[in-house]
Amino acid sequence: MLRVLGVDPGLTRCGVGVVEVTPDRRARLVHVTVVRTPADMALELRLLHIAEGIAEQIDEHRPDAVAVERVFAQANVRTVMGTAQASGLALHAAAARGLPVGLHTPSEVKAAITGYGNADKRQVQAMVARVLGLAEAPKPADAADALALAVCHAWRLGSPDAVSTGPQTLTPAQRAWRDAQAGAAGRSASSPLVRSGGPRTSPVRPRLGA
Questions:
Q1: 67, CA 20 to 30 Å: which among 34, 45, 157, 162?
Q2: CATH of domain 2-189
């Protein structure tokens, strides 16, 4: 089983979600929260609060890998700057702990979770709830996006399309999980009874942080 922490970066709301995924792609919610900072707080203090929040989640939940949304240029320079700054904090926190990081674009995450790269936020929230077996969709959207990032990274791990910030070096846990995933895929392909559809998991209510 692989544990991945996903970060949906942002200055006002930074989503952080942790999931565990089995080699046969079944996913389970571990924890999800949103680190918030007020717009009237000094920038350096906002960044400090976000950095501490991300570090706290990593240290508490001890993921095997971290997934962060890849930042693209936008018309709103202030928004993209804040997102990039929060993204850098997540990358730093992971690197400081020797954790591998995967970067995924919003369209990659949407395609992995919903099968449609242009899905809207409500569709992503609904599919995250379905994949994780939750009774209701995680809210706000930042929480669902962080969980979607984590699931996407676990599902794509080992794929030649996966993007990493550094050398493609897997941890022992990741290598074992990748090999198990390949074995599970091989068994499914050779079985005459292949179940279609998303993973079935027991309902788990999300713990949404403040």
A1: 45
A2: 3.30.420.10
